[in-house]
Backbone:
């Protein structure tokens, strides 16, 4: 179907890491990198589990990769057939974005292999693969389907005491090192041919092997089902994994596929945008939506999404502000129960945030910059490795990126404003807001001889400039957080007793009195010729072009920020910072002010983070820079189609999918091009449609109503569905 399928011809060994991301299959519970069944850890084969973490020795904690449940290897007349081998005649991969269905066709000469696989959206513990082998020459074929002991880990190993079980159902049961979490993968292969089979168990894993003298023209089909459970899901996870694949085997591949497709139809019915007028843009938008939808935690009431989704272990599988500022808008407008799960995760991890604040000597909630399970901080003090000295570089993201707590409050408040659902605030959300506000009361820098209050020694979204004072974005977010705390009183006017009891429980009375004063006293930004200074002293930094700074690099993977980075002493910034503030608080600025800042900062922005372009695009829509908005939209939406984005921060590999950009693409289309605004459940459109788009149509919800927005150059309407 047009604009729904990503195709690649050829096996591209040099881009295997990036292709594994682009062709990712996932279902929120787990993600499987898009590589052929025959490939292993050398090609970054991984089944990454959501919310299961482990730490090996003193290495970085990261998500656990389960064994590969859909591994199949072939050999013909003793020669192993792999897509990477020189003899391979043709190899083609295709991902259908509508259904997360990955197919591949490989012509090995003596035989060809076609397969279709998916990670079930109907049962998140199930994955299935259907393989067809066509024989072109007489010879001896060997098929090995199994669970290899060949797991790609960045900071592993994570699975120990592996116990293999051979038989009709193969199984690998193992435990993680740190918390002794059991991970069970079971595999059930159903051949449509009658050949005696043997089993092999050993160091390399567990396999079912079929050997057959085959004749040219013969066709063999095999369905493979795998079930994955951990002891976090169920005590008897091995039995559950076995049952999952056994039942799927009974049902058959086609029936499982039908259920999976129905589940995807339901997801797309609630979220799918239709863009007409530009085929490449339509494909990119579809890709963005696929990538964000396929990693949403639909199986859990309280779970968030890591910065690289389920495409592997990069960024330690941690949850960043990306969740609240970049993914949240699509979910809250289309599938609010997922937005709720992202926020429930923050409510649940409040104890971790209280603990982190206390570690730094503050009261209140200071959320982890890189949050793992339980709110544990995954960000280390040395988060980058220098390419010249190979030494870890002291970075301050963990300590100084204090806007994270206010970002969470921003989403909590938006959730209430957009859905009208107060229950999240009643069930821990109000406490989160109050504790975050308390952190900012505590973290402020007051002066004996001045009235205004500073926030010194912080890092804003632009991570290249560390330890700055009065970052305009951070100060504005803090003000919003404090205002949100005060607004709770109004939200709970009908539950006064309950709210007062909450303040009492939190021993908040004295802090409550100080909130209003602090709001008045937080330092506003310096403004020069309409341009907001990003932080104190920013305008005094060297004002040179991006090209000049780039020309100073001595190494392609060199880190631009920190003490010795090329950007630190200049006005070149990594990503939207002032512009992110303008995008999040559009009402604070006139169009002229927004445009003056856009014109100043855009040429000074490296867009070194995939979070950057969407903020610039949103502001460009508003100020009528539609050609620029269009280019930034394409850049944002196509990142996981082309496999773009930075792959390295110094010597640390940071490749993977880009959920924040995926969410950013939705934001540009819905909030920018269509100009959707939902205020207290009432929706309006203020379209700014670029000339390249002839029609934009998408579903959304407002206060429980299911609506559809339809925009062309002649009309813009919202109709009930
Ligand atoms: C960006 C952060 C972002 C993180 C995870 C970094 O490169 O600077 O803003 O949260 O990546 O996506």
Residues:
């Amino acid at each position: 179907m047009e604009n729904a399928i990503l195709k690649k011809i050829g096996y591209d060994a040099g881009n295997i890491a990036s292709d594994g991301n682009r062709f990712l299959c996932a279902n929120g519970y787990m993600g499987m990198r898009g590589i052929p069944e025959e490939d292993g850890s050398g090609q970054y084969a991984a089944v990454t589990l959501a919310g299961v973490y482990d730490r090996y020795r003193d290495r970085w904690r990261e998500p656990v990769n389960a064994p590969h449940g859909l591994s199949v290897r072939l050999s013909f007349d003793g020669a192993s057939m792999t897509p990477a081998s020189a003899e391979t005649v043709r190899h083609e991969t295709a991902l259908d974005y509508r259904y997360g269905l990955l197919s591949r066709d490989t012509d090995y000469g003596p035989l060809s292999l076609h397969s279709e696989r998916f990670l079930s959206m109907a049962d998140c513990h199930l994955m299935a693969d259907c393989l067809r082998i066509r024989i072109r020459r007489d010879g001896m074929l060997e098929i090995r389907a199994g669970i290899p002991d060949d797991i790609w880990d960045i900071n592993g190993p994570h699975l120990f005491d592996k116990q293999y079980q051979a038989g009709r159902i193969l199984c690998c049961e193992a435990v993680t090192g740190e918390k002794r979490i059991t991970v069970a993968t079971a595999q059930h292969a159903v051949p449509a041919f009658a050949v005696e089979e043997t089993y092999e168990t050993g160091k390399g894993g567990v396999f079912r092997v079929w050997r057959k003298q085959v004749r040219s023209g013969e066709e063999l089909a095999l369905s493979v089902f795998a079930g994955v459970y951990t002891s976090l899901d169920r005590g008897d996870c091995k039995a559950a994994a076995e049952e999952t694949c056994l039942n799927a085997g009974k049902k058959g591949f086609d029936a499982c596929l039908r259920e999976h497709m129905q589940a995807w139809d339901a997801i797309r019915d609630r979220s799918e945008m239709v863009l007409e007028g530009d085929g490449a843009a339509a494909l990119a938008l579809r890709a963005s939506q696929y990538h964000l939808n396929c990693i949403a935690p639909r199986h859990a009431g309280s779970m968030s999404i890591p910065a690289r989704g389920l495409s592997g272990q990069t960024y330690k599988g941690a949850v960043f502000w990306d969740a609240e500022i970049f993914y949240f808008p699509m979910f809250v407008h289309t599938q609010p129960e997922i937005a709720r799960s992202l926020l429930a995760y923050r409510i649940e991890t409040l104890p971790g945030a209280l603990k982190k604040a206390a570690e730094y000597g503050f009261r209140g909630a200071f959320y982890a910059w890189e949050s793992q399970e339980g709110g544990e901080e995954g960000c280390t003090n040395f988060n980058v490795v220098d390419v010249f000295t190979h030494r870890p570089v002291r970075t301050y993201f963990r300590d100084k990126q204090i806007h994270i707590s206010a970002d969470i409050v921003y989403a909590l408040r938006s959730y209430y404003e957009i859905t009208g659902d107060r229950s999240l605030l009643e069930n821990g959300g109000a406490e989160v807001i109050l504790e975050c506000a308390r952190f900012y009361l505590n973290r402020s820098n007051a002066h004996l001889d001045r009235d205004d209050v500073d926030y010194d020694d912080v890092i804003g979204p632009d991570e290249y400039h560390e330890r700055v004072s009065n970052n305009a974005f951070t100060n504005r977010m803090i003000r919003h957080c404090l205002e949100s705390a005060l607004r709770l009183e109004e939200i709970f006017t009908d539950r006064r007793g309950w709210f007062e009891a909450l303040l009492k429980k939190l021993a908040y009375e004295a802090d409550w009195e100080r909130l209003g004063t602090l709001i008045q006293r937080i330092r506003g930004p310096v403004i020069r010729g309409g341009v907001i200074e990003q932080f104190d002293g920013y305008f005094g930094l060297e004002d040179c072009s991006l090209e000049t700074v780039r020309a100073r690099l001595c190494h392609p993977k060199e880190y631009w920020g920190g003490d010795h980075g090329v950007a630190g002493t200049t006005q070149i910034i990594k990503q939207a910072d002032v512009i992110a503030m303008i995008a999040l608080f559009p009402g604070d600025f006139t169009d002229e002010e927004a445009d003056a800042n856009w014109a100043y900062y855009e040429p000074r922005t490296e867009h070194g983070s995939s979070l950057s372009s969407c903020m610039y695009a949103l502001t460009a829509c508003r100020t009528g820079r539609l050609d620029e908005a269009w280019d930034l939209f394409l850049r944002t939406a196509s990142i996981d189609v082309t496999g773009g984005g930075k792959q390295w921060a110094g010597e640390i590999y940071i490749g993977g999918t880009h959920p924040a950009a995926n969410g950013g693409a939705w934001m540009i289309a819905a909030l920018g091009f269509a100009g959707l605004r939902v205020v207290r459940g009432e929706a309006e459109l203020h379209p700014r449609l670029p000339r390249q788009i002839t029609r934009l149509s998408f579903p959304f919800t407002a206060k429980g109503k299911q609506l559809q927005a339809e925009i062309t150059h002649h009309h813009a309407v919202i109709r009930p569905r």
Q: What stands out?
A: The CA atoms of residues 145 and 670 lie 45 Å apart. The longest strand covers residues 219-230. The mean pLDDT is 96.
